[in-house]
Amino acid sequence: MAFLPFYVPKNKQLKIVIAGGGYAGISAMTSLLRYMPEADITIIDPRSQHVKITHLHETFRFPLEDVLVPFSALERRFGCRHICAELIPQEIALQQWQNDKFITLEDQILEFDYLLIASGAAATQVERTENVLVLQDFMASSGANLLTSHLSTDTVDEQSISVIGGGATGIQFLFEIAHFLHRRKINSRLRLIDSGERVLKQFPVGFSRYTEARMSDQGIDFHPDTLYRGQEGGKILLEEKESGRQFALPSALSFLFLGKKPDNLLAANAFGQVLVDHEPLQNIFAAGDCSSYHSYGSNTMSAQSAVRKGKLAARNILRHSGMLKLLEPYLHHDLGYVVSLGPTDAVGWLALEGNVVSGIPALVIKEVVEAQYDLLLTGIDTYLI
Ligand SMILES: Cc1cc2nc3c(=O)[nH]c(=O)nc-3n(C[C@H](O)[C@H](O)[C@H](O)COP(=O)(O)OP(=O)(O)OC[C@H]3O[C@@H](n4cnc5c(N)ncnc54)[C@H](O)[C@@H]3O)c2cc1C
Prior knowledge:
This protein is α/β, with parallel strands linked by helices. It has helices at 23-35, 71-78, 91-100, 143-150, 168-183, 205-217, 303-321, 359-377; strands at 15-19, 40-44, 49-51, 68-70, 81-83, 102-105, 108-111, 114-117, 132-134, 159-164, 188-193, 221-223, 226-232, 235-240, 246-250, 253-256, 266-268, 273-276, 279-286, 291-293, 336-340, 346-350, 352-358.
């Protein structure tokens, strides 16, 4: 059993319920088991598999199964229990759960010593039509299958494909789609639509310059300052942001990556305990994209922050259950971020936001970070910070 500073155990076996088995939830579970191997852990998640979302765009090259880890496999590996259900953490329910120390799920009562909410952030809702695909679709079918099943294969005419959203997710999908179309020799025109004046606007301008240059090299059209207004049959409806002029372009298939909803986040104190009416709930913690910590640490919606918050919440749950009750504040700052631009290129920053890296060095950093998380899923924790 590993040593955890400021933790003098009082219990050998805590009952811990984790709502959400994503990056934050799984990192929390592995940390809990590291310091308390006999912890009784239940994961509530409506999916039957843990999704390694940071690899989802790669399913244009690899089978979807490569990025899915069945919760049944995690149950066997870690001795936890998975319940396939949703937990809706509304304020009134949170207070009730804190008082009762149990939650009711359909027909069963789940008692807990600590509850960790790690249910991720909700995607922006959009009106769906037949030839519009969103991130959720990639959790049910691989990118390669989705693209080939939606494009007509009996035509030699050029087919237009639109990607809407030039954030990190949209860009990673855009380049994988471009690579796939090229590899399969599909006669098509690819375009990116974004409401901002440059792609990857949440990152330094060096990211945008590099990415837009690679888009131009690959013949991808870019429509900046343009708003998506819908899809009607084989046409995409757009609006110029400045002038309000509406227009339509042919689009056999449109991919929407409009980002996550920053609302409905759970406020938490610097130790990860959920705040209701500005007061911390002692036994309910939050981590990952669903949480906003009131601390100096990073609240970015990234796997990196989700893992760090999950691990911190786990350590603080144990310390809170112990004799000393000395908790550790969340101070993690992102160490870098890499956006892949297809299988052989990437752009990112390392250590300092202005320190932009691209090409093979950026790709190597991404591989190392992904490998570190893959190791965690096997029970080997190599995270130093
Ligand atoms: C294509 C793509 C690439 C990305 N690449 C990177 C990257 O390179 N680096 C990086 O740092 N970040 C990246 N991200 C962002 C990163 O994936 C997220 O920030 C991270 O997954 C957040 O982890 P999380 O645990 O908070 O949420 P998630 O990983 O989304 O997990 C949430 C879990 O909660 C479950 N859940 C949802 N609602 C409920 C409920 N009501 N009750 C119970 N369970 C529920 C879900 O089924 C899911 O299993 C990428 C995202 C995408 C989409």
